[in-house]
Amino acid sequence: MRLDHATWPEVDTYLQRSRGIIVPAGSTEQHGPMGLIGTDALCAETIAGAAADSVDAFVAPTLAYTPAPFNMAFPGTISVSEESFESLVADIVDALLQQGFESVYFLNGHGANLQPLRRVFSRFPGAALRLRSWWDFESVNDLRRRYYGEWEGMHATPSEIAITQVRHRVVEPGAADEPPRKLSRDYIDAHSGDRHGAPEQHRQQFPDGRVGSHSALATPDQGAAILEAAISAVASDYSQFLARAE
Ligand code: NI
For 4-28, what is each residue's pLDDT tens digit? Predict the structure, then answer.
């Protein structure tokens, strides 16, 4: 259930049977020539929403304005500073706790959110907070490996694009039908968590916005299978998180 589609008496009743909530976190940034600007937010929101429905939980409005400084040289990217993001998330956690929510589960879809979110968590020692990215789960990774192998890459990945193809939009690949430059193991190790360079340099290095990801391999059927795996993994991880908090 979406919190923003509920009434306050419904939230009041919910809090008598559960103290948990899921908060999706994504980004607003370029995702290559065929990936939607909202890809990360849409993936996290879709998975979190369906997982929440399956376990009778509330899902909070998506955190879509987040840090993505390296993509600012591409039109459509809206990056906020880590400082602003952390301060906003800390206020949100604080408000949720004040309202009586006790277990806050963040479902992430954007690598650059991880460090800031962990720093926010450290401001609430003792609170039941959990952070997962939708690709953390083995069942999801099996599919990513099986469908795309090394072409999953790092940004504008076929898996995330396939997910948005299910419920949002399919964009024709055009020139992105050609595979991107393949990344070295060293590059991948040095840049995990979206530790990329300055905007102009990043665009120069990856002119069409794909970072080692062959986005055009995505299909809606694969997206549906990845979604199903992610939804069930998140639902069971969330239930386990709540059980631990009780
Ligand atoms: Ni992404």
Answer: 999 999 999 999 999 999 999 999 9
Please provide the DSSP assignment of 93-129 as one string: HHHHHHTT--EEEEEE--GGGHHHHHHHHTTSTTSEE
What is the C-alpha to C-alpha distance for residues 128 and 124, in angstroms, rounded to an integer? 9
pLDDT at 47: 98
Q: How far is the CA of 126 from the centre of ligand 1 (A)?
A: 31
Give the distance (Å) from ligand 1 centre to CA of residue 49: 18
Question: Which residue type, as a one-letter code, is found at position 80?
Answer: V
In the reported structure, the alpha carbon of residue 159 is separated from the centroid of ligand 1 by a whole-number distance in angstroms of: 9
Q: pLDDT per residue over 94-122, tens digit each?
A: 999 999 999 999 999 999 999 999 999 99
CB hemisphere CA count around 87 (13 angstroms)? 5
Q: Give the domain 3-245 fold.
A: Rossmann fold (3.40.50)
Taking phi over 0 as left and psi of -120 to 50 as alpha, with beta for the rest, 159 belongs to alpha
The alpha carbon of 236 and the centre of ligand 1 are apart by a number of angstroms equal to 23
Distance 232 CA to ligand 1 centre (A): 21
Gap from CA of 222 to ligand 1 centroid (Å): 17
Give the long-range contacts of residues 186-190, CB within 8 A, separation 24 or more: 187/212, 188/154, 188/212
pLDDT at 186: 85
Q: Which residue has the tokens 């069409």?
A: 208
| Every domain of the chain and the residues it spans | 3-245
Burial grade of 136 (CB within 10 A; 0-12, 13-18, 19 or more): middle
Cβ atoms 215, 115 nearer than 8 A: no
